[in-house]
Design goal:
The chain starts with a helix and ends in a 5-residue tail after the last strand. A hairpin with a 2-residue loop joins strand 7 and strand 8. It is 31% helix and 29% strand. Helix 4 crosses helix 8 and helix 6 packs antiparallel against helix 8. By secondary structure, it is α+β, with helices and mostly antiparallel strands. It folds into 3 domains: 57 residues, Winged helix-like DNA-binding domain superfamily/Winged helix DNA-binding domain (Arc Repressor Mutant, subunit A), CATH 1.10.10; 205 residues, Bira Bifunctional Protein, Domain 2 (BirA Bifunctional Protein, domain 2, 2-Layer Sandwich), CATH 3.30.930; 48 residues, SH3 type barrels (Roll), CATH 2.30.30.100. The protein is elongated. It catalyses: biotin + L-lysyl-[protein] + ATP = N(6)-biotinyl-L-lysyl-[protein] + AMP + diphosphate + H(+).
């Protein structure tokens, strides 16, 4: 109920009366007052005026269930929403919830992540109050071999959500990084549980650098944040909610064909290294190619010095720029 009251306050152009809140939400005036008091205790500045009602004056930058839910406009993603102050990993939490019978579309978000991981075993930590660490549960009826494309679907969703929420134009570094001005601002990790070649569930996890004002010297040339790029702090809950909303849209398009036929052109327009030389790393082996975008399977098309084009799958390689990360 607290999240519903918060959503009503956010949607109101001016003061909204206690009676209106009672009628719209089917609760008593006492219940409304109780939840208003609780919201104030969490840091929301809510003005109250006799015969006018309540008005939201200021809201803190929180990733509580009430705050995220009040921003959410999805059909199914995030209807079961779990928000934490700190945890080991949102991907691990979604796995635990899935094994306990959680439903398709369940979302876990944390203020702080202590054991997060990225692609190929790398770590991805989330500092408290500074970023978005979020994972969600999918139970699609698709072929297991098509699941890796969901990483690219997620990249499109994050890219669009960042642009719509902040105005910052980002790019995608195949297959799973979001890039702004040549530096990483978001990573994506998709994991799958299989049984006899059939999908039990898929976990999609992502971490976005939001309100970080500086990075250690060893990361400053590779990583950036929305605050650094935009010159201002960004409210995280609306961004997290927008990512989920955008994912629903792109996911529906993916399910129609179980490939990227409907998304390939848009992805390639956003690909940061299209028609540029890249370094493809397979174990200890490094090769130089021209990047020619992705195909409908989400594979990266690369051209060698003889003009021969071949496909590269995301699970087997890393891609780097010739002179640096991008």
């Amino acid at each position: 109920m607290k999240s519903k009251i918060l959503k009503e306050l956010k949607n109101a152009d001016d003061y909204i009366s206690g009676q209106q809140l009672c009628e719209r939400l089917g609760v008593s005036r006492t219940a409304v007052w109780k939840h208003i008091k609780a919201l104030r205790a969490e840091g929301y500045e809510i003005d109250s005026v006799t015969n006018k009602g309540y008005k939201l004056m200021m809201e803190p930058d929180l990733l509580t269930k009430e705050e995220v839910a009040s921003c959410l406009h999805t059909k199914w993603l995030g209807k079961d929403l779990y928000c934490y102050e700190t945890m080991d990993s949102t991907n691990l939490e979604i796995r635990r919830l899935a094994e306990a019978g959680a439903s398709h579309g369940t979302v876990a978000i944390t203020e702080e992540q202590t054991m997060g991981k990225g692609r190929r075993g790398r770590s991805w930590l989330a500092e408290a109050g500074a970023g978005i660490a979020m994972s969600f549960l999918l139970k699609p009826q698709i072929e297991a071999q098509n699941s890796s494309m969901l990483t690219l679907v997620t990249a499109l969703a994050v890219n669009e959500a960042i642009c719509e929420t902040t105005g910052i134009r980002a790019k995608i570094k195949w297959p799973n990084d979001i890039i702004v001005n040549g530096k990483k601002i978001c990573g994506i990790l998709t994991e799958m549980s299989l049984q006899m070649d059939e999908i039990n569930y898929i976990v999609v996890g992502l971490g976005i650098n939001v309100n970080i004002d500086h990075f250690p010297e060893d990361l400053s040339d590779k990583a950036t944040s929305l605050q650094i790029e935009g010159g201002r702090k960004i409210k995280r809950a609306p961004l997290a909610a927008k990512v989920l909303e955008c994912f629903e849209k792109y996911y529906d398009m993916f399910l129609k064909t179980e490939d990227l036929s409907m998304l390939q052109d848009e992805y390639n327009k956003l690909l940061v290294h299209t028609d540029q030389k890249i370094k493809v790393v397979r174990g200890s082996k490094e090769e130089i190619f021209l990047s020619r975008g992705i195909n409908h399977r989400g594979e990266l098309l690369v051209e060698d010095e003889d003009g021969k084009v071949s496909e590269v799958s995301s699970g087997e390689v890393s891609v780097r720029g010739i002179l640096g990360y991008v």
